[in-house]
Design goal:
heterodimer; A: alpha+beta; Alpha-Beta Plaits; two-stranded antiparallel ribbon; 5 helices; globular; B: FAD/NAD(P)-binding domain; 2 domains; seven-stranded mixed β-sheet; 22 strands
């Protein structure tokens, strides 16, 4: 179980969630943030902080196609090499160790900019 | 120097979250004395620290209960057995004397226990670093306000957007020479009423802004100024005797990492009896890991019962593993 960040985050990237995550498992891409589903401890602290209510529990995300695609996409962000990288990000054990990633998944990068 | 205080107990429980509190009850139920240590100043672990007002709905026989009330009930359940609480103290090292564990706390207290049960959950909450000026820690930079009076007459810069940052701005404004409150985002997370008071006062608020450098006489430990950078890239310099970084907490395994425990990622490996690889050291709750592990309080309670029943038998082989039913004595 985990939480997932949906499309409402794209181009907002508020980072309020990053500030409250007690295990530092929210990683900042270029236009969106991503929760590491392996490192997430399911506390829900981020859900209430998001100014665009982009964050939902995994079980709720499964029931909506639009969110379900971001659930799969969040896994891809960590498990597959991101554009321009040769290795997957994996589970760095804390976003502060990894720094801002600055790259998005193809799904997010393909979204037209506002 | 006064000798370090020594405490003796049958079971030392490390972590006063729900699993540890239930472990304290269960130790008593099995006729064992218990001492509970926690780095936080209050019992209740993640529930009180992260979601005291949230409703818990996944514990058997309790349809819904507020986090705060749930913790109070766990403390009350253990109370008849008089567990000793050592709060605001961290278990730092593990050693052995005559085959029995001796755990040293960060205040020097030595706890002689016949068994140790680790219920440390996600670990020790550690302040999130400021990201610059770490070399000023202890002189011009701190993560807490222990005594507001220490900042009387100072130019103070507070960094953060949650309750701690707002509370400290509110507390220091009347006594500091100046207060600058710096927050990376546009909106504050803290209590609306506190924010209103801070806005109405003489605190200068800088939103969408970060602290980028701390400058002063490092050798003398005298901070003079900090540089702020706004989202637009504009930089400004404000006078600062002290920076208080209130950026929240990240939990880490902490000193347990060096105890020689067999670890699985950030968790402690246990067998089906909740034994770790170390003699007389058991673990239960979110801290443990094994194939098929599910991190829920319900599971933690079950693991606490497993651990404490095995502790009881390991300490007195004449006892049965099965404790009898709690209704028997009624």
């Amino acid at each position: 179980m985990s939480y997932v960040i949906g499309a409402e985050c794209i181009d907002v990237l508020d980072r309020a969630c990053v500030d409250v995550c007690p295990v530092d498992c929210i990683y900042v891409g270029d236009r969106k943030s991503y929760i590491n589903p392996t490192e997430c401890i399911d506390c829900g602290a981020c859900e209430v902080e998001c100014p665009t209510t982009a964050i939902v529990p995994e079980r709720a995300a499964r029931k909506q196609d639009a969110l379900n695609s971001h659930l799969t996409d969040s896994r891809a962000f960590f498990e597959l090499p991101l554009p321009g990288r040769s290795e997957p990000l994996g589970n760095p054990g804390g976003a502060r160790h990894a720094g801002e990633i600055g790259v998005d998944t193809p799904l997010v990068a393909a979204r037209p900019r506002p | 120097m006064a000798p370090s205080p020594t405490v003796s107990t049958d079971v030392l429980i490390v972590g006063a979250g729900p699993t540890g509190l239930y472990g304290a009850y269960y130790a008593g139920f099995r006729g064992l004395s218990a001492t509970v240590v926690d780095v936080l100043p209050q019992a209740g672990g993640q529930v009180l620290a992260l979601y005291p007002e949230k409703e818990i709905r996944d514990v058997a026989a309790i349809p819904a209960i507020r986090g705060r009330d749930f913790v109070a009930a766990l403390v009350a359940q253990a109370a008849p057995f008089h567990p000793a609480y050592l709060l605001g103290r961290q278990a730092v090292t593990l050693g052995y004397q005559d085959g029995e564990p001796v755990v040293t706390l960060d205040d020097g207290t030595r706890v002689h226990a016949r068994a140790v049960v680790l219920t440390a959950g996600i670990g020790v909450p550690t302040p999130r670093p400021l990201g610059c000026g770490e070399e000023w820690l202890g002189t011009g930079l701190s993560y807490f306000v222990l005594d507001p009076r220490a900042h009387a007459g100072q130019d103070v810069v507070i960094v953060g957007g949650g309750d701690s940052a707002l509370d400290w701005a509110d507390a220091l404004e009347p006594i500091a020479r100046s207060v600058n409150l710096v927050h990376r985002r546009g909106a504050f997370r803290g209590h609306a009423a506190t924010l209103e008071r801070v806005r109405a006062g003489r605190t200068r608020i800088h939103t969408d802004t970060q602290v980028v450098t701390l400058a002063g006489d490092l050798a003398a430990g005298r901070l003079a100024a900090v540089t702020l950078r706004s989202k637009s890239g504009a930089e400004s310099v404000v006078a600062a005797d002290h920076v208080i970084a209130a950026l929240g907490f990240i939990s880490e395994l902490g000193p347990l990492r060096d105890w020689g425990l067999r670890l699985r990622a950030r968790s402690v490996a246990v067998d089906r009896s909740m034994r770790t690889n170390l003699p007389r050291v058991y673990a239960a709750g979110d801290l443990t890991d094994y194939d098929g592990k599910v991190r829920l309080m319900s599971v933690g309670f079950g693991e606490a019962a497993i651990a404490l029943n095995h502790v009881a038998v390991d300490l007195d082989p004449d006892l049965a593993l099965f404790p009898g039913h709690s209704t028997d004595g009624a």
